[in-house]
């Protein structure tokens, strides 16, 4: 993908409640008339509207058709630090930028937020160009590692407090024998 030097930064407000969906915005599309397309992002699908050679096009895609969300550099060859969170499709012309900024300060928070809201995996780019999920997922849920079982106080309430189990057991102090002139210091 060629570097995007004339790129408009994107920050979309995520709807607070289900009635606020869809999120409607315009994005850059070099192949469309006028260089823009209209995007309607619903919770379960996406609608792209654009004109090509004067003919209006409408493409509706389920979010399941998208690979996931990836962080991309806006100018990988240049000095800029611009980053974007992109909803990736196998066809690059159908990929959609959901967030972009000139700095990487909030990109991870936005990446996680959009991934959780849309139920698509967070993708990490490998050195060979392939992408893999950052975390394992089952459907819309992120699968975490197995957590250790939490101790309950009920069965242990009559035992020593746990802080004492971590410390070494004490030893009685040895009292040194004091003597003065062959007699004990305490002797009469």
From TrEMBL:
InterPro entries noted in UniProt: DUF6101
Pfam families tied to this protein: DUF6101
Protein name: Uncharacterized protein
Species annotation: Ancylobacter pratisalsi
């Amino acid at each position: 993908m060629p570097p995007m030097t004339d790129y408009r930064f994107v920050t979309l407000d995520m709807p607070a409640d289900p009635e606020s969906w869809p999120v409607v915005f315009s994005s850059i599309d070099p192949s469309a008339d006028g260089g823009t397309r209209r995007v309607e992002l619903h919770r379960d699908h996406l609608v792209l509207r654009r004109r090509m050679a004067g003919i209006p096009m409408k493409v509706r895609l389920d979010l399941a058709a998208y690979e996931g969300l990836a962080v991309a550099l806006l100018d990988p060859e240049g000095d800029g630090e611009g980053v974007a969170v992109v909803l990736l499709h196998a066809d690059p012309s159908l990929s959609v930028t959901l967030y972009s900024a000139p700095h990487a300060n909030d990109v991870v928070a936005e990446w996680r937020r959009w991934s959780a809201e849309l139920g698509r995996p967070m993708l990490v780019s490998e050195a060979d160009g392939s992408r893999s999920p950052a975390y394992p997922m089952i459907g819309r849920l992120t699968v975490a590692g197995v957590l250790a079982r939490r101790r309950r106080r009920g069965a242990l309430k009559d035992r020593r407090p746990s802080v004492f189990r971590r410390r070494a057991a004490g030893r009685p102090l040895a009292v040194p024998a004091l003597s003065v002139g062959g007699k004990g210091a305490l002797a009469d």
